Amino acid sequence: MTECYAILPRENKVSSKNAGLTICAINYLPKALVLFETFRQWHPNDDFYIVLVDRKDETILVDRPGLHLIWVENLGVPQFPQHAFAFDIIELSTNVKPAALKLLLQTYDVALYIDPDVKIYACLTPVFDALQTASVVVTPHTNLPVVDGNKPDDVDLLRFGAFNLGFVGVSRCEEGNRFLDWWSDRCLSFGFYEPQLGLAVDQKWVDLAPAFFPSLGILHDPGLNVAFWNLHERELTRGPEGWLVNGQYPLRFIHFSSFDANRPDVIAHKQSRFAPGTRPDFQALAEDYARQLHDEGSDIFVGRRYGFDYFEDGTYITPALRRFYAGLRERFADVADPFNSNGKVMAFARKHGLLVRGNAASKRHTFQDVGKYKGPIRLIHVLLRCALRMLGPNRYYILMRYLGHISSLRNQVEMFGDV
After folding, report:
1. What would the pLDDT profile of 387-416 be if each residue is shown by its tens digit?
2. Predicted pLDDT at 36
3. 302 CB contacts (<8 Å, ≥6 apart)?
4. In 302-373, where does DSSP find H-type helix?
5. DSSP per residue over 5-31, as a string?
């Protein structure tokens, strides 16, 4: 269970019962500011918080009425340095979400978490109304099933989760607090992005939540959380009073996930359903969003490196090192600061060749990158055919199941013996 010891950086006088929250690294700050400005446009009397998941930088100053910055280490998450080392930037940002929400609910009646790459287009009244009786509200990725040979589809959602946790609202009540305690414990213990093992950071856990928390509400309003994963069921049109979804539902917010501000005609790099330029309704809003990001300084911040990707001396922490450390955390239990460049974790990394020459950072890959590795993939297939002939079908099948298990580096740590 996560306990929050931090004190909110705000006056004791509370002017609102509701608060919004987003979480991001410094390079995403322009996106978070677009979210903040559009949130305040529709909810001018509500407070808003940005939790910065990065090393503290005193030069980062944002002075806007109603906006408060909290550095992630001030959330009061126990054993924070160990979590910051074990999880990558996406994992850590999502896994501290319950702790941040719980902190806000010490002061506010309702707290909304919204991903930084969201823009608000209308009042979120239906959300706040639902939280009058619900302890938690979430939105499904889609309201209609789809298996059409494109990504993402129903099969993908079995891997990544039925609900999109780029948005969640929680009310201050006994069940809401129990939900956050449960969710936080699962995130900080198992919040890895390993869909091959059924883990998808904070998100997949909430598939279980309706069974455990009967007052959880599922919001099917098509105007909420419009994104690449549900555009097959949602058309956008401009009405006399604003944008509409499917001609009748007010567009409340778009989640610009996997969005490239330099290519607003490309809906998202993580989908294959819509070719560039085939959704002019979405593209018109995407182009406007890209301009807002530019105005907030996205070109300046985009190249900012993530502070927790490096040891204290600037040595890059490879993804492989993170996973092996996560699998060996009990053996590193005596290490208070794994980022210490003269410490036990660095010595382990050097001993086992887990650092890279030139200190080059690893690139995050998507399914679309597979085509870049056709040669190596063909070689792997040749080796697999040889293994099949050598082992026979039964033992080969067992081998593949074992390889699926150890596809998580956390399940390979026995090869290191004692640390």
Report:
1. 999 999 999 999 999 999 999 999 999 888
2. 98
3. 27
4. 319-327, 344-351
5. ----SS-SS---SEEEEEEE-GGGHHH
Q: Give phi and psi for 172, each to the nearest 5.
A: -80, 100
- Going 181 to 19 to 91 to 71, the CA torsion angle's sign is negative
Mean pLDDT taken over the chain: 92
* Pairing outcome for strands 110-114 and 18-24: parallel
Query: E-strand spans in 288-383?
Result: none
Q: Which phi and psi angles does 216 have, rounded to 5°?
A: -70, 135
Question: Is 380's pLDDT higher than 70?
Answer: yes
3-state secondary structure of 143: coil
253 bridge partner residues: 120
Single-letter code of the amino acid located at 207 = D
pTM of the predicted structure, to 2 decimals: 0.91
The alpha-carbon radius of gyration of the chain (Å, integer) is: 22
* Side-chain half-sphere CA neighbours of 333 within 13 A: 2
Give the N- to C-terminal CA distance of the chain in Å, as an integer.
Answer: 28
Summarize pLDDT for 48-69 with one digit per residue, the tens: 999 999 999 988 888 899 999 9
Element (H, E) at 126: helix 125-130
Cβ distance 409 to 323 under 8 Å? yes
Counting Cα atoms < 13 Å in the Cβ hemisphere of 38 gives: 25
Strand ranges, E, within 40-134: 47-52, 67-71, 110-114, 118-120
The whole-angstrom separation of Cα 125 and Cα 384 is 56
Rounded to 10 degrees, what is the CA torsion of 124, 127, 133, 134? -150
Cα dihedral 9, 14, 19, 22 in deg (nearest 10):
-10
Residue that the structure tokens 């690449």 belong to: 228
Strands 163-171 and 110-114: antiparallel
Do the beta carbons of residue 322 and residue 86 sit within 8 Å?
A: yes
Structural domains of the chain sorted by starting position, each given as residue range(s) with its CATH number in brackets: 18-299 (3.90.550.10), 316-419 (no CATH)
Residue 42, amino acid: W
Q: Of 417, 126, 419, 407, which is closest to residue 249 (Cα–Cα)? A: 126
Beta bridge partners of 119: 254
Q: Which amino acid is at 89?
A: I
The pLDDT of residue 24 is above 70:
yes
Residue bearing tokens 């990065």 = 54
324 exposed, middle or buried (CB, 10 Å; 0-12, 13-18, 19+)? Answer: buried
Average pLDDT over residues 320-335: 95
